[in-house]
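Many introductory courses stop at the sequence. We go one step further.
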Amino acid sequence: MVRVFIISILILQTAELVFAEPTALHSNADSVNVENGARLAHGKKLYEKFCAQCHGLEGQPTAEMSDLFNPPVAPLNAFGYKYGNTLEGISASIKNGRGTAMLSFRDRLSQSQIEAVARYVESLSKPQP
């Protein structure tokens, strides 16, 4: 009797897997990874449009660009930013500027866009998988 009960449960669990919606088979971690990936891609597009001219496509400004400004343009692909290496610090630099050639983007980007760029900038200093 117990054996029949266990087999019935296994059959039901297998049926749930076979007939489940494809998205139901993914864990929450998978959907979070997709969402984070989309957010990073959006941040990268904004970075390329608004930031790469000075900071370089991969966060390393050219020597010519750095020489144009005093203080020089900060590299963004090394951990330990001058004004903080937290998302909040990076977001504040983007939003408020630095009182140097780094201008404020508060009137050009929404808060969610600023956060997307900050997440992308943060990713530049992390080793890529």
